[in-house]
Q: What sequence folds into this?
């Protein structure tokens, strides 16, 4: 991103702000980031003070280069068939999305979550012939599958119901 700026006439703060904006835009060009991720990435470089980073983030938000609500919606839509709702919430929170945005997203979303289908998919991925040999399975093996699904963030009762029924 080339600007026709006379660097000699710029103050150190203006130059730093321009440089920070360019760096931020470069960072988000290939991969979208949350505000927290971008702030951490800019801080990690050690070149910019907090005030410059704040101004840069205000600029990026104003021009809709970063938007945590949109990021969260895209993330959930992309990963809804991979993770449980509990894990999705955790991952969004780890990425710096505020609890308010997360709660609002899951309460007012039109995204369909079919956790039962996801549990069945993961169950059959872990043990493709589960329903054929369910009755002759060792308790230890069944426990391993149950633990695997619990680590994926699913509710014990839902997992138990799906593991009991033959469908």
A:
């Amino acid at each position: 991103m080339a600007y026709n700026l006379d660097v000699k006439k710029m103050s150190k703060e203006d130059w730093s702000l321009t440089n920070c904006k360019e760096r931020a835009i470069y960072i988000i060009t290939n991969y979208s980031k949350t505000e927290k991720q971008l702030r951490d990435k800019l801080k990690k470089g050690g070149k910019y003070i907090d005030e410059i980073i704040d101004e840069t983030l205000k600029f990026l938000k104003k021009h809709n280069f970063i938007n945590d609500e949109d990021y969260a919606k895209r993330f959930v839509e992309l990963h809804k068939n991979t993770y449980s709702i509990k894990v999705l919430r955790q991952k969004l929170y780890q990425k710096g999305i505020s609890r308010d945005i997360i709660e609002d997203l899951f309460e007012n979303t039109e995204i369909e979550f079919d956790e039962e289908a996801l549990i069945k998919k993961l169950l059959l991925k872990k043990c493709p012939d589960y329903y054929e040999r369910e009755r002759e399975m060792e308790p230890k093996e069944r426990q391993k599958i149950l633990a695997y699904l619990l680590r994926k963030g699913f509710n014990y009762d839902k997992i138990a119901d799906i593991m009991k029924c033959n469908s």
Observations:
- The radius of gyration is 23 Å.
